[in-house]
Amino acid sequence: MKAFLPLGLLPLLALSSCFLFEKEEMGSEAPVSAFLGDRQDLRLCRRVLVLPIQSTNMTSTLRKDLEEALLSELAFQGRFQVLRMEPSQGAEGKEIYPTERRGRIDPDLVVELGRRYQADALLLTRVTQWFPYKPPRIGLRLQLVSVHSGKVIWAIDQTWDAGTERTRLDLINYARTTLAPQENLHGWEFLMISPRRFGRFALRRSVNTLSRR
To answer: 131 by DSSP, 3-state: which?
Structure first.
């Protein structure tokens, strides 16, 4: 016996197909979970010192490129005056990361660096996961630490995996709304084969959470 769909369902199925096609075509920005500490500490932040990005399996060239991208994204936000650590003093900034990895950032090091650079807060960034091949994957942990209180003001700890539907739709949305026309010739798939651009995508999504605070 043949089964037939009720005629009333056909328009609904067509509408559903159109919605799915539009979602695929336009993409959708995936939410990023961000921790926000004391809002007063955040309001007191005028000058932020950005420490070198830490990663164990990322090339130094790519890491430096992402550091430049992070500085640019923060400057674009216009929320803080962004301070760059001098290359000759980069080793001093790295001293703080072992304490961060143990789960408690050394407040004495925070105060020392803050005074030296006249900064209100330090931004620590660690790459927690990195897989540069298609589909790429990156995990980022960013922590903004107050020099005045020694507490974490704002933090991100998230992974973007291009092998998941969530990140794929986010990449489609990012390519459509962010990339210049000449960069977007191959659409969102261009981001899948460029580790540099995939890393920049994740950094922008992270920093954008500050604009909502």
So the answer is: strand
